[in-house]
Amino acid sequence: MTDNPQLVNHDVAWEAAHLTNRDIDRRKLHGQSAQQYSNLVGDIAVEAAEKIVKAEKIGDTDLLTGLPNRRAILKRLKQELSAAKRYGKKLSIAFFDIDGFKQVNEAGGHDFGDFILKGLAKRMKQGVRAEDFLGRHGGDEFIMILPESDEFSALVAAERVLKKLNIEPTHGFKSFRLGGSFGIVTSDGKDKNSTLITEADRLMKKAKLKSRSIRRQEAILGCITVGNTITTYNRAGESISEEQFSN
Asked: Which pTM value belongs to this model?
């Protein structure tokens, strides 16, 4: 199957159209009525539409974790930004990655890393509200889209997911402490997709640098950046410090 969802949809529609013509010609040979032709066309149209919907879903899904992929994230974010602007609501996104995951891949190989990532995806989904949207941006990076959420609400949502990252997988005689670094941005819907994601990524990297500097001295779960504040969390998911920085 091609990796391009648009090509998949085009191929499905082309196949369905030719299938329709072939079947109608076959039915004509057997003397079936115009009404039967009409019913046949309707049935095949429904089948073709179902195939296209299925292809769209496949094209929007990350095959490893089962989460929405980057393509789906961008589509959903565009929709939510439009809704936030139309109804005068706030919208937040949280861009985050998995701290310690590089060491997991290096020690256990990519198969082991994939296994851990799949497990983490299931755990993270448990920490996400039904109205929120969690997707895999790529590698060990993820994005949450949080409709009708200001900075405080988004911080609470990020803290829930951060706690789900508190696992210590082992490979052979080696164990790893995982965690997360988050960057949160809030919008009134007037921003572009790329602007929000770029800013959230920038804030996530600030959290990452802070997390790395602290991990050298003590075990922490991760850091979350909101605005110009970086909050650090212990392994229990409790806030232990806040630091202000200038942009």
From this structure: 0.79
How far, in Å, CA of 54 to CA of 79, rounded? 21
Give the separation between CA 28 and CA 17, rounded to whole angstroms: 17
HSE at residue 3, side-chain half, CA atoms within 13 A, is 4
Tokens of 47: 């089948």
Q: What are the phi and psi torsion angles at 2 (to 5°)?
A: -70, 150
| pLDDT per position as a tens digit, 187-221 | 999 999 999 999 999 999 999 999 999 987 788 99
Tens digit of pLDDT for each residue in 169-180? 999 889 999 999
Element (H or E) spanning 212, and its range?
helix 193-215
The long-range contacts involving 88-91, CB below 8 angstroms and separated by at least 24 positions, are 88/188, 89/147, 89/148, 89/188, 89/189, 90/148, 90/149, 90/150, 90/186, 90/187, 90/188, 91/145, 91/146, 91/147, 91/148, 91/149, 91/186, 91/187, 91/188, 91/189
| Alpha-carbon span 163 to 247, nearest angstrom | 28
Contacts of 80 (CB under 8 A, 6+ apart): 91, 133, 145, 147
65 secondary structure, DSSP code: T
Q: Output the DSSP codes for 230-245.
A: EEEE-TTS-EEEEEE-
Size of the chain in residues: 247
**Whether pLDDT at 28 is above 70:** no
Per-residue tokens: 119: 């497990």
C-beta atoms surrounding 193 within 10 Å: 15
Q: Please report, as a single letter, which amino acid is at residue 57.
A: K
Identify whether the C-beta of residue 211 lies closer than 8 Å to the C-beta of residue 224.
no
